[in-house]
């Protein structure tokens, strides 16, 4: 059972009709980069609650969440109408195992693969500048969206790329639009036909570690290809593997 506290909306930014970010001020417990909080709104004495990944680093008191308004969605349609100064409910604790602690530190390459708002936990992890990140030879951050107008955190990705001084490689992928600056296609297909690795200039191998976040179909399909090509499987406390995942629905 979550302990709920009240948070105040400090900012809400509508990037497109469906994508928005909210910044909340709330005295939650310290979280680990990669974790999520629950956000809720009380209606008729019942809390409607869903999970949202932290986007900001743990040392930043402004809690930022990047959210897709799901057309038929219950909570996101309510969150979408929030205004600066409104109050919402947020879990005091944060949760989840999509964190650096789960990744064996002998991995050479860390692949962070996201669709849509699934970019959030990676931004939080990278913004934490955790010293374990510097143990990887390279970190590859991949953000796939339908259209270039959905790449709202590309400036932040570019800023991080500079800050990591050659350690961090970034790549965007669009699935519904061609653009000079992005690859085109579906992540699992681009891995299957080697296009993604060729473009990055690095190949996945048994010393790579892959994080997958966002669309559950992308996660299922990518895992199938990673198993077929490289015999990669999930990493858990019982079995050593190369993949961890955060399915958003
Ligand atoms: C660990 C975790 C972290 C998450 N972090 C984020 C986050 O940072 N940002 C974010 O936007 N969402 C995130 N989600 C998804 C979020 O918890 C909700 O499921 C989502 O916002 C929809 O809520 P809703 O009440 O509007 O829709 P609901 O009424 O709960 O759902 C309607 C249906 O929409 C589908 N659906 C849910 N999300 C999506 C989506 N993004 N695109 C298409 N279909 C969808 C589901 O199949 C669901 O049956 C996360 C989920 C998990 C499990």
UniProtKB/TrEMBL annotation:
Its cofactor is FAD. SUPFAM superfamilies: Ferredoxin reductase-like, C-terminal NADP-linked domain, Riboflavin synthase domain-like. It is an enzyme of class 1 (oxidoreductase). It catalyses: 2 reduced [2Fe-2S]-[ferredoxin] + NADP(+) + H(+) = 2 oxidized [2Fe-2S]-[ferredoxin] + NADPH; reduced [flavodoxin] + NADP(+) = oxidized [flavodoxin] + NADPH + 2 H(+). InterPro entries: Cbr1-like_FAD-bd_dom (IPR008333), FAD-bd_FR_type (IPR017927), FNR_bac (IPR033892), FNR_nucleotide-bd (IPR039261), FNR_type-1 (IPR051930), OxRdtase_FAD/NAD-bd (IPR001433), Riboflavin_synthase-like_b-brl (IPR017938). Residues 2-101 form the FAD-binding FR-type domain. Its EC number is 1.18.1.2, 1.19.1.1. GO terms for biological process: cellular response to oxidative stress; heme catabolic process. Keywords: FAD, Flavoprotein, NADP, Nucleotide-binding, Oxidoreductase. The keyword Lyase does not apply. One of its GO terms (molecular function) is nucleotide binding. Belongs to the ferredoxin--NADP reductase type 1 family. This is Flavodoxin/ferredoxin--NADP reductase. It comes from Blochmanniella floridana.
